[in-house]
Write a structure and sequence with these properties.
The structure holds two protein chains of two kinds. Chain A contains six helices and no strands. Chain A is an all-alpha fold. Chain A folds into two domains: 75 residues, Cytochrome C biogenesis protein (Helicase, Ruva Protein, domain 3, Orthogonal Bundle), CATH 1.10.8; 56 residues, no CATH class. Chain B is an alpha/beta fold. Chain B has one domain: 3-Layer(aba) Sandwich (Glutaredoxin). Chain B contains five helices and seven strands; from the N terminus they run H-E-E-E-H-E-H-E-H-E-E-H. In chain B, the strands form two sheets. In chain B, strands 5-4-3-6-7 form a five-stranded mixed beta sheet. A two-stranded antiparallel ribbon of chain B has the order 1-2. In chain B, helix 2 links the parallel strand 3 and strand 4. Chain B is elongated. The chains are: A mainly alpha, B alpha/beta. Chains A and B meet through helix 3 and helix 4 of A and helix 4 of B.
């Protein structure tokens, strides 16, 4: 019986050895979902954040390029190996630079990119404010410049219209 | 108040200059994240029918080297190939190759047919080493200094002009530094 058990273990070991490289090979070259649905959801979310370097304005999730496929597989491998989302992104950024992120990180070289539009908007708002304040002063000045004679004339006109209406 | 009228013209001029400069930029040339960093850790077996593969240690032997990423399926690689053949003949700088995602037979035939300018050529069948090098399009050519650091990356075909005016001057500068 002991002999038989050892034989079974040996057979199992041999089969494992024969099968394992095939599995590893298959895992590394086929773009298929991870078995753990939580991990797969994370992988798919990361795929959307990474730029396809060949087509440039697509994420690797949308692209059919071969490199995009390789990167999708790589992301899944990193996640399967236990990397966090940030570690997985860092792994790819180390190789391809910030450029590979569709959302550029906020740092001194990207301040203009991130805050430029806000600054331009505030400047425009300030400009509009100045313009409106200036244009409002003009009618006020004209109204104040009515002399006594004009005031009487205006009052008369207003009275006339009121009588006409009633 | 006079100054107020000048502002739109100044803004227009600044925008025109910025857009003109933007026209000259090449968005395809992505700056490499690996410049001034050591070459990635890798070990590639030789291309089929060849003896010498390529690994990190081969680039850390105290010599300035060029590393060219190529493939038999890559059309532009054929265009730059004669430039590298001439370079190999001149012997000015050692050229190594990374055969990116290629079929072994095709790669071997390609080198047999057009000549092999590479001292060592590693076969990167699944492209993982390519990713470690930040490769996003073939061909790409790297200049590696004596200490095994990547100093320059050229994306696309290396013309004779690129070699003479960009790559070789840098190689000479690096050599002189030692």
């Amino acid at each position: 019986m002991n002999r038989f058990a050892r034989f079974i273990v040996l057979i199992f070991a041999i089969v494992s050895i024969l099968v394992t490289p095939v599995l590893v090979q298959a895992q590394s070259t086929i773009d298929k979902p991870l078995e753990n649905p939580v991990d797969e959801t994370r992988a798919l979310a990361l795929h959307k954040l990474l730029r396809c370097l060949v087509c440039q304005n697509q994420s690797i999730s949308d692209s059919n390029a071969e490199l995009a496929r390789d990167l999708r597989i790589l992301v899944r491998q990193r996640i399967a190996a236990g990397d966090s989302d940030d570690e997985t992104l860092a792994y790819i950024v180390d190789r391809y630079g910030d450029w590979v992120l569709l959302d550029p990180p906020v740092k001194s070289s990207t301040y203009v990119l991130w805050f430029g539009p806000v600054v331009i908007f505030l400047l425009a708002l300030f400009g509009v404010f100045l313009f409106m304040r200036r244009s409002r002063i003009v009618p006020v000045a004209t109204a104040a410049s009515l002399n006594a004679e004009e005031e009487v004339k205006l009052k008369k006109l207003l009275d006339d219209t009121q009588e006409g209406n009633s | 108040m006079r100054l107020g009228y000048i502002i739109p013209f100044v803004l227009f001029f600044a925008l025109a200059v910025a857009l003109y400069v933007g026209l000259g930029l090449k968005p395809r040339d992505i700056p490499s994240a690996l410049i001034d960093k050591p070459v990635p850790e890798f070990n590639l077996p030789p291309v089929k029918d060849h003896d010498l593969g390529l690994k990190s240690a081969d680039l850390q032997v105290g010599e300035v080297t060029l590393v060219n990423v190529f493939a038999s399926w890559c059309g532009p690689c054929r265009v730059e190939h004669p430039v590298f053949m001439a370079l190999a003949k001149s012997g000015e700088v050692t050229l190594h190759g990374i055969n990116y995602k290629d079929d072994p037979d095709n790669a071997s035939n390609w080198l047999a047919r057009y000549g092999n300018p590479y001292k060592r050529a590693g076969a990167d069948r699944n492209g993982r080493v390519g990713i470690d090098w930040g490769v996003y399009g073939v061909p790409e050519t790297f200049v590696v200094d004596q200490g095994g650091r990547i100093r320059y990356k050229h994306v696309g075909v290396v013309s004779q002009d690129d070699l003479d005016n960009k790559i070789l001057p840098l190689v000479r500068k690096l050599k002189a530094k030692k």
